[in-house]
Amino acid sequence: MDNKDIQNLLDSLDEGPLGRSDAYWDNLEKLNIARGVWHSKPVPKETKDKMSKAAKGRVNKASLDPRARAKAAKTMSKGVIAYSYPDNKFIGQYTNNKEASKALDIHPSIVGSVARGLYKQIKGYTFEYADTK
User: Fold this and answer.
1) Full-model pTM
2) Residue 101: how many CB atoms within 10 A of its CB?
3) Under DSSP, is residue 72 helix (H, G, I), strand (E, B) or coil?
């Protein structure tokens, strides 16, 4: 496909009354093929093998039944220690972010963010993971 054909394709990309027409998408696909852009390339076997090897031993909690998911969450969760901010007085130790968030009325993801050091404090509390000491 030469530049003139590509320009003709670009010129023919029109919009229908409710957005892009079927012709638009057909011509866009032809244009991408002409440019050598492939959106659905097959993943090479070597890459699949690397991804599979990297995922070995991980637990996909979403695919487990509820009892197994709860057990996996319990074994994989880290203990969280809460302190008051700025005087650093001990507030409590919790088995995971969810438990700490319920006790202190803070979203669990924020508890984890403070414990990882992304934020210094939230609502007058600071957190750290129990296994860091």
Assistant:
1) 0.46
2) 19
3) helix
Tokens of 98: 């969810």
| Tens-place pLDDT, residues 40-64 | 566 678 888 888 888 777 766 666 6
Residue 78: closest CA among 127, 118, 125, 119: 127
* Helix or strand holding residue 61 (H, E): none
Terminal Cα-to-Cα distance of the chain (whole angstroms): 64
Torsion of CA 65, 97, 117, 60, to 10 degrees: 0
Amino acid in position 38: W
Q: Domains for the chain: give ranges and CATH numbers.
A: 1-58 (no CATH), 77-132 (1.10.10.10)
